[in-house]
Structures are given as C-alpha cells and as structure tokens.
Amino acid sequence: MFKKFFSIAMFLVLFLTLTPQLSSTSYAASVEEEVPQLTSASHDASVTDVTYNALVGTMAVRATYPNGLTVEGGDVLVTNNTSSSGLTGHAGIVTDGNGNIASIAGYGAHPELTSLSAWFRKNPNTVVVRNNDASLAHSAGSWAKSYVAQHSNAKYGLLNNMLNLEEVYCSKIPWLAYYSFGLNARHVNTIGNGYNILPYDWKSLGETGKQGFFIAASFGNW
Q: Residue 167: in which H helix or E strand, if any?
C-alpha cells in the first residue's frame, strides 16, 4: 500500500515539474507586447510638446510703427505722399497685428494687402488714426482682410453707392469695415452715389476725437 502511494506521489511531482506554467509574470509580459503602454515619461514628453507649441504661438512678434508703437488691427493710415486717382491723399486700414494694410491704389487697380514696410517706404508722411474701442477696431480690421480676399476683382471708382462692394476707393474700404460693425464714420449718407469720405476726413476724425477716433501717431511732414 505504501509503495502504491509513493508511486502516485512521484508521478505528480514529475508531472508538475515538466508542465509549462502560466505565471503572472509571463501574462503581464504578453499584455505589454500586445498593447503599447503610455508610460509617464512619454506622457510628460507630449505635455511638454503641447506647452512648447503654445508658447511659440504666443511669442510671435507683432509689427510696430517707426516710433515703436504697436500696430493694431483697425488702424486707419492716412498719407499726403500719394494720391488715389481723383482724391487728395491716400488711406488704408490695418487688418491685423502683422501690419498688413488693405487698400486700393487707383483706376485699373484692385483691393490688395500691402505690408507695413512697403507702405512706409512709399508714404513716410503718415498719420495713424485709431479707435478707442479695440474690439470694434480689430473686427473692422479682420473684415477688411476678408474683403480683400473675397473681392479681389473689385474695381476702383469714386461715383458709386457707399454699400457697393464691387466698386470702391481707398478711404471707402476702412469706412465699409467699420460700418459693417455699426459705426458710420462721419455719418455719411449711404443713399445715392458719391465719394462721401475722403482720406483726410479720417485724419479730421482723429484730430477732433469724434466717434472714438484719435491720432495714435504721426510721421513725417504735414
């Protein structure tokens, strides 16, 4: 009887020794191979990348005028160096903090964006007219940028309705931009045809402080 029991015990020992076992370690290893794990190191790296990208975005250098004043979208630039065909002086509106300026040169030209440096190379005598409502001004600047993109084939013309987007002149573009957000500069008549707001009218608005406009800077000779 004892010999029979001993034989059975030995058989069990040999069976357990030779049979592969699925330990918790081997199971964990197989899971790690099948599903890549997001370790704390890789997570930290991704957070760092996001933070870096955000910082780079906020570190963009904004354009400045020759005196160091920061450019603001919605600034209206008026110069006596250039005359749009039929108008004394010339005007444009800054579209964004990069200093792009929306304007139209004259007959045969179309609305376009001009860089700040190009503007001052041609127009060193420039007055910056700014509105004290920054939100309104920035909206007007953005509108002007979209206008140039969507109406790049618009024609230059003086005797047209103020609400006609397909025929404009230089000082009408900033008027349209502000009018689109409820500010009718100089309270011009929108009925009938005519050139109701001239480049120097913007300068006068800034000098008199009407409708929230003021002279933010003046360059050159006037």
A: strand 167-168
